[in-house]
Amino acid sequence: MSTVYKLKPEQVTESLVVLYAPHREAQATKFVEAFGGQALVIRPQQTLDLTSLDPDKHLALVFDEAVSLQSTGPKPPGPVFVAFEGNAMVHRLKHGGGKGEQVAKAVGLSKVSGDRQLTVLDATAGLGRDSLILAALGCSVTMFERNPAVRELLQDGLDRASIASDVTDVVERMSLRKEDFISASSDIEDESFDVVYLDPMFPDRSKTALVKKEMRVFKQLIGGDEDADELFEPAYRISKHRVVVKRPKAAPFLANKTPSLQIKGKSGRFDIYTKKAF
After folding, report:
1. Where do the annotations place S-adenosyl-L-methionine binding (predicted)?
2. Is 205 annotated as a binding residue?
């Protein structure tokens, strides 16, 4: 039976609480040394109760069987983590169709021959969902994610998926660069990727429980991407064929740049900036 150990606010000195099972100590310690936070071990048969902490001040990064982000406070939503394996959508995409997906249309998969592998740079990967779709459809995807905690989730998801037979071939086409795209872009050659894909943070008013849970922790951890407009210029330079920007329906154009064309959905849209035909 698990022992519940209740963390008290006076015990927590950092906004990010890094909880780790003993077998993940080295990874958690390395994270804290590099990026900060307060490390606390989760002993075997012990559960740490985070409900007394202030959800506006504290967030937990948990290193256990999976790496997850956990809200604090009373009645917090469940943990946020990356799970690529066992994905019904990926199974469907791998076994026929899929180019009708909006993100696939936006990237231009319908315009290339079946044996050509598009190279896509996802500059704001987040939890990697769109990258996973594109990789399942045969693209080679290079992901950038600048937030260290989100990178831990994404790398952990890739690691677990790499030994899951149903998606091993898909994640082999996905790689993660643990850098800020804007900072790293000066070292990336002009037109070295077919497509650059951008999905910067923006206020999301969706009422679904899943989005509310994830947006709660992401907004607390990251806030808004105040420098999102700075993504456009390097993205345009690095792309050979097009830049694709995913935006909420009512959001302004990124960097006030009018797109060449748009694909609109019920709650969002893809703004597409074309350079040359495939």
Report:
1. 129-130, 145-146, 199
2. no
